[in-house]
C-alpha cells in the first residue's frame, strides 16, 4: 500500500459559509412556502425547503480541520482515497470516513498520556482523542517497560529503552498492520532481546559481539552507544513495512537482576580490590628498587644479601600495609 497525498483546495470555510447560506435560504423558503399554502398555492416550495433543511447538514460531515503535524487517512466505501497532511480547513466527500485503528491505543509514550480528564465536548474535537481519527506526525517517545533478559554469558539483566519515532507513511501505518502503535511496542521488545543476548553486561574475555569471529571488548555497560545504535537499526528493519521511522533509541535503565545483583556487586568489589592491590604492589616494588639503587650509588651503607632481603621485606610491609607503620629505632650495633 502506497501513500497518496490529496492536494485539494482548503475550501472548508467556503463550504461552511455556503451551507449556512443554504439554511438561511431554506428557512426563508419554508416561511414563504407556508404562506403560499395558506393562499391555496402549490406546496412544492415548502416540501423542497424542508428537504434541504433535513439534508444540508451532510455537508458538515465533509469538513475536516488539520493542525500542523497531523494527517487524516480517508476511505470511501472501503477504498483508500488518500491522505490529508497539510494543515488547514478542508472539505472532502461527506461519505468519506477517517481511519485510524490505533486511535484508542494508549502506550507509555508522549502524545498518548493525558494528565487530566477532558469533558466529552473537548474530547470530541481534540486531536488526540479516539473520536478525532487523526494520525500524529510528530516525533513521539516510546518508553517500554523494563525487561529481564539474559546476556551472552547467561546472567539475567534488567534493561529499559526509550525509542523516539514518528509516522512517515500514513497508508502503511493504517493498512499494512492491525495497530501500528502496538506493533511498534512489540517489535521494540523483540529487537531489544535479540541485541542484548549478543553482549555481556561487563567486558568478558573470548566474547565476539560484532560477528567477525574476533574477540572484542564490547559490553552493555561500556558500549552503550553502539548497543543503542544496533537496537535502533534492528527496530527500524522490523517496522519499515508499518510506515514508521525510528529516529533514535537510548538505554534508560541497565542493571543486574535482583537475584544476582548482590553477588555481582561482591564480584565487582573483589575485582576493584585486586586492581588496587596490584597497583600498590607495583608502586612499592619500584620504591624499594629505587631506595636500594640510591644507597648503592651514594655508598651510604653497604648491605649484604641477607640485610637487603630484610630491608626489602620491611619496606614492602610498610608500603603495602593497610595501617600506618610504627617503626622501631635500633640504637645498638648493626650486627
Quote the average pLDDT.
82
Q: What value does the Rg take, in angstroms?
A: 38 Å
Q: How much of the sequence is in beta strands?
A: 15-25%
Largest sheet: 4 strands, antiparallel
Number of strands: 10
Q: Terminal Cα separation, in Å?
A: 99 Å
Molecular structure report:
With 335 residues, the chain is α+β, with helices and mostly antiparallel strands. It is 43% helix and 17% strand. The strands form 3 sheets. Strands 2, 3, 5 and 6 form a 4-stranded antiparallel beta sheet that branches. Strands 7, 8, 9 and 10 form a 4-stranded antiparallel beta sheet that branches. It is rod-shaped, with a radius of gyration of 38 Å. The N and C termini lie far apart (99 Å).
Features:
single chain, 335 residues, alpha+beta, 4-stranded antiparallel beta sheet, 9 helices
Care to give the gist of this entry?
The chain has helices spanning 12-38, 44-55, 58-61, 120-125, 170-175, 180-196, 224-239, 258-298, 305-320; strands at residues 63-66, 70-76, 79-84, 88-91, 97-98, 135-136, 140-143, 147-150, 156-167, 244-256. With 335 residues, it is α+β, with helices and mostly antiparallel strands. Strands 2, 3, 5 and 6 form a 4-stranded antiparallel beta sheet that branches.
